[in-house]
Amino acid sequence: MNLESTVEQLFHLLVCGDRRRVQAFVTTLGERGIPAERLANDVYWPVHEMLVKLFKHAQISRLSYNYATRTLRQVAHQGAAGYVRSDASRGRVLMMCGPTEGEELGAQLAVDLLEAAGYEVFFGGAGVANDEVLAELTETKPHTLVMWASAASDAPAIRALIETIREIGGHPDLRIACGGGVFNRASGLAEEIGADISATTPTALVAALGSRVADMVAGPRTAARTAAPTGRRIAKAA
Q1: Measured in Å, how far apart are the chain's first and last C-alpha atoms?
Q2: What is the number of structural domains in the chain?
Q3: Are 143 and 53 contained in the same domain?
């Protein structure tokens, strides 16, 4: 599969709003034996990032953006039914994301891959106040809080949330991960605001969380040998 050409073709079908041709194109890719997980990470994710970037710079219309994000979210959701599922229980994740349909799409790609890898994911989406997030951390007790596909306008609130979590000190084993969205566009931002984990793609996030789980369970020497979860092909990073 020529990734660049595939991404371009799918992008053009999506922004035209031709849902039938999008479905037919994706079906053809599946018939070629391309794993659903690879389509999500290597095709749908780059298309998502392209849509967000072009819309942000007014290079595609609102209508084209709406056509594309809604259709892509549908085919991605359908494709998730074909993911290889891990029987392992890898822990609980609370995930938040940016405020737009496109950013929710990007987060959904990560959610589906994490669930297939064996994580229990609570997907809170966008617009959740920090005090609600703090309350939910106490209620659900996740291993990891993920801020994924966030907008630039979210960064100050995310920084404040991380600082509050550290100051309160009530979640000593909580790991905080950031990636996608503004974190991909601003290199080093995740580390600067205090995140423990950063990742640029959904499968890279799965792999990074897997190494952190290994670190907590088996100690750093074992974790150093475990760069990704053992959930078969789903753990491969881009």
Answers
A1: 15
A2: 2
A3: no
Taking residues 133-146, what's their average pLDDT? 96
Q: How far apart are CA 44 and CA 10, in angstroms?
A: 9
Residue 223's pLDDT is what?
Answer: 35
pLDDT in tens, 75-114: 999 999 999 999 999 999 999 999 988 999 999 999 999 9
CA atoms within 13 A on the CB side of 167: 7
Q: Which of 10, 49, 52, 54 is nearest to 28 (CA)?
A: 10
Full domain range(s) for residue 35: 3-80
> Cβ(121)–Cβ(111) under 8 Å?
yes
Does 210 lie in the same domain as 231? Answer: yes
| 68 contact partners, CB below 8 Å, separation of at least 6 | 11, 14, 15, 17, 47, 51, 60
Distances (CA, A) of 177 to 86, 88, 148: 21, 21, 8
Res. 169 pLDDT band, cuts 50 70 90: confident
Of 20, 10, 11, 44, residue with least CA distance to 238: 44
Q: What number is the average pLDDT over the span 191-208?
A: 96
Residues 135 and 227 in one domain: yes
- Same domain, yes or no: 24 and 75: yes
pLDDT at residue 231, as a whole number: 37
